[in-house]
Each structure stands twice: as structure tokens, then as C-alpha cells.
UniProtKB/TrEMBL annotation:
<protein>
    <recommendedName>
        <fullName>Lipoprotein</fullName>
    </recommendedName>
</protein>
<keyword id="KW-0732">Signal</keyword>
<feature type="signal peptide">
    <location>
        <begin position="1"/>
        <end position="18"/>
    </location>
</feature>
Length: 149
């Protein structure tokens, strides 16, 4: 997932100005690949009127209500066990949920946690929660992203 972000920054640097169409298109392509990978990140480009731009990585999706709000207790418990086992993240650490896609039977959210172990300036970790409800019953649960980036 980081390879797409790195490729984008190389394209932006080689094109001379992150505000030109090549760099903006590079960000669009990187974001398309990040979406396919179900990454918790996206590349954001802010272009200034007088020229130039600033690029950054942002959490994917928009702040919203998790599908877990309406889930049964068994699924809620299973999801929290995934976060605790894989990353040591707990319910009390959850800062926000960002909805990327809610289209039954597939749900893609980014859960952002307060995380003292994170190397990010804002001490947060974002992990994509992917839920796929099977027509025959049961739910596939997957987490995508790095713990404590």
C-alpha cells in the first residue's frame, strides 16, 4: 500500500510541481490503486491559485456511522478480538470511523485509533475493516493496514 504513495511522490517530484496535471493525475491513479487494495490511506493534493501544491496522506472515507452500530453482539465481539489480537487496539482507543463503502453485502470502513505507539505526528493508527456477509450465513472479517505506522 505504501508503494503507491511513494510512487505518487516520485511522480510529483519529477514533474516539477505537484500542482500540474501530471501530478494530480498521479494522485488519482495512486488513489485508485489504494482503493483496490482497501488501504486506509489516500493521497490528497491541495493546489494553490498562484501555482504549487501540497500533497499529504489522509485517511480514506468520510466520517460516519459504522455498520457495527447495527451488528449483533457476536459480530461486534469478533471484530474487537481482531483489532486486539492483531494490533493491541481496544474499544477505548477508537477515535473515529470513516466510511469508504457500505453496499450490502460488502462493507469497507477505516477505523482510526488513538495510538501512543504510532510514529505519526498525530499519534493515530488507521486500519481498514472489511466485512463481507455471506449469503449462506456468517461474515468474513479482514483488517488491512499497518499497526502503529
Amino acid at each position: 500500500m505504501y508503494k503507491f504513495i511513494i510512487i505518487y511522490f516520485i511522480v510529483a517530484s519529477l514533474s516539477g510541481c505537484a500542482g500540474n496535471p501530471t501530478a494530480v493525475r498521479g494522485a488519482e491513479l495512486a488513489n485508485k490503486d489504494l482503493l483496490k487494495e482497501r488501504s486506509p490511506y489516500r493521497v490528497d493534493v491541495k493546489v494553490f491559485e498562484g501555482g504549487g501544491a501540497v500533497t499529504s496522506t489522509v485517511w480514506a472515507g468520510t466520517k460516519g456511522i459504522s455498520i457495527m452500530e447495527s451488528a449483533d453482539n457476536t459480530l461486534k465481539s469478533d471484530v474487537w478480538k481482531f483489532f486486539e489480537k492483531q494490533c493491541g487496539l481496544h474499544k477505548s482507543d477508537l477515535r473515529e470511523v470513516r466510511v469508504v463503502q457500505h453496499k450490502h453485502p460488502f462493507y469497507y470502513e477505516v477505523w482510526v485509533f488513538n495510538d501512543k505507539e504510532s510514529k505519526r505526528d498525530d499519534e493515530t493508527t488507521g486500519i481498514s475493516l472489511i466485512l463481507n456477509f455471506s449469503p449462506s450465513g456468517g461474515t468474513d472479517i479482514n483488517l488491512v493496514g499497518s499497526c502503529h505506522p
